[in-house]
């Protein structure tokens, strides 16, 4: 896959799961800003795995 395809996949997943992940993270840290940082790190890690290994743990795999 080319970078564009990875970005399309990531964008689709962010639209589908971001709110749920934010809710889960906020139940653990009780600070919305910290929860947003955690979720952002999740998406960064997912994108890195998608590019390096060609797979991820949510959908499309």
UniProtKB/TrEMBL annotation:
It comes from the Bacteria. One of its GO terms (molecular function) is DNA-binding transcription factor activity. GO terms for biological process: DNA-templated transcription initiation. InterPro entries: RNA_pol_sigma70_r2, RNA_pol_sigma_r2. Residues 13-50 form the RNA polymerase sigma-70 region domain. This is RNA polymerase sigma-70 region 2 domain-containing protein. Pfam families: Sigma70_r2.
